[in-house]
Amino acid sequence: MGHSTNLFKKAQTIIPGGVNSPVRAFKGVGGTPFFIKSGNGPYLIDLDNKQYIDYVCSWGPLILGHAHPTVIAALNKTIPQGLGYGAPTEIEVEMAELITQLIPSIKKVRMVNSGTEATQSAIRLARGFTGRNKILKFQGCYHGHSDSLLVKSGSGLLTFSIPDSLGVPAEFTQHTLVAPFNDIQAVQRIFAQFGEEIAAIIVEPIAGNMNCIPPLADFLPNLRSICDQYKSLLIFDEVITGFRVSLHGAQSLYNVIPDLTCLGKIIGGGLPVGAFGGRQDIMEYLAPLGPVYQAGTLSGNPIALTAGLATLQVLQQSPQVYQDLAKATQYFLEELKVVANQYSIPLHTQSVGSMFGIFFTQKNSIHNYDQVACCNLENFKQFFHGLLNQGIYIAPSAFEVGFISTAHSQSVLDQTLEAAKRIFFQMNGYDTSATSALLEVDTLSAE
Ligand SMILES: *Cc1c(COP(=O)(O)O)cnc(C)c1O
For position 441, what pLDDT does the model report? Predict the structure, then answer.
């Protein structure tokens, strides 16, 4: 038995489910998670010394791949000077300067320790600033695990939202309204009824927690104008998209300016960091200037910010990096579709820059959570395990987005395509009956 299997057994006796974040347990695909020994460029090495090409990239932060030399060198320089002081440091000002320079809608920024903290604090700030309680979020968008945001789906659009987790009193989510992603009419209906009570809309400008769903053409501009009309705030949760799809955020790609922006993942370069920022008048409502309390013992930690700042500086110094990443991602997805086609596996892909989604479906566009949920899960599981067996790691859930880093070379992508070809061949040869039965279901539930 492998070291990972043994360790997972032991872990389960002393850590709930054996993991410190649920999706790591492979519940969505079955099987046993592997334990990581190290990472290097596009590769992960597990405890049994098996190497994997990694398309998870720590769930987004590692846009430069694992253990990028510049990031590691910066850390090696900073660490000997102490690990944190709970007092102001120069690097916090440098980080704030860089963020406000790269994302102009952010006039002031506060550092925190995770994406969850960023969104939770931004919501509190929006409520404090507007003096309103309700917020609107979208089905399938994830904004961390704080109480009022842990809601995906009300049983009807305008009914009170049901918490996704035990331990969240319904009273805590009664102010959370939910609409389907990309459905502006649903948003208009909700605002017609509750508009004057809504503090903010919070949205992932490109949904990255229900696979990969870009916004439809008018969706974000319409959210902006609805917020303006009702004097509600627009919060972009760019925890994934910030510095992933562009050096200036998804907001620059779609040319829609939010009032507040939440950041995380890439700005920590692999260490725990989050941030939220935006309009000056709003940010000045924060303590110690204003009446909205927010704090953190480890916030602005110099080691974490060193990794983040080094990552951002590498990105800033090589502006062609985003085009290269997008090109590599498009190549990979187009070839993947060609291979799937050869073996008659219905497959659709979506991407923005280097964040991508693979959908086992006959549809050629996916706009919302319900459509993702209709995709063929069995095909996804076979694909996941087929790749894993051949040393390729994609997220262990059909609802997660994939990432390509600057360390993913053409040969790494081609190796993945070869592996996919072998899997599609098998899926086609041995499992046609099961596949076509599932496809019928998928087609029936289309739109
Ligand atoms: C990951 C993520 C979060 C939560 O960040 P954590 O660091 O895991 O707390 C929030 N919003 C989005 C869009 C995310 O992808």
Answer: 39
Asked if residues 283 and 126 have their Cβ atoms less than 8 Å apart, the reply is no
Q: Give the residue, by CA position, lying nearest to ligand 1 atom 10.
A: 143
- What's the rounded Cα separation, in Å, for the pair 298 and 288? 17
Is this prediction's pTM over 0.85? yes
Q: Does domain 3-67+319-439 have CATH number 3.90.1150.10?
A: yes
Architecture of the domain delimited by 69-316: 3-Layer(aba) Sandwich (3.40)
pLDDT computed for residue 375 by the predictor: 95
Q: For CATH 3.90.1150.10, list the domain ranges present in the chain.
A: 3-67+319-439
Contact call for residues 71 and 307 (beta carbons, < 8 A): yes
Q: Which of 134, 137, 265, 442 is catalytic?
A: 265
Cα distances from 166 to residues 121, 161, 163, 172, 242, in angstroms, run 22, 13, 7, 12, 31
Q: Residue 46 C-alpha to ligand 1 middle, in angstroms?
A: 25
- The two tokens of residue 175 are 């102010």
Kindly give the number of the ligand 1 atom that is closest to the alpha carbon of 241: 13
First to last CA, the chain: 46
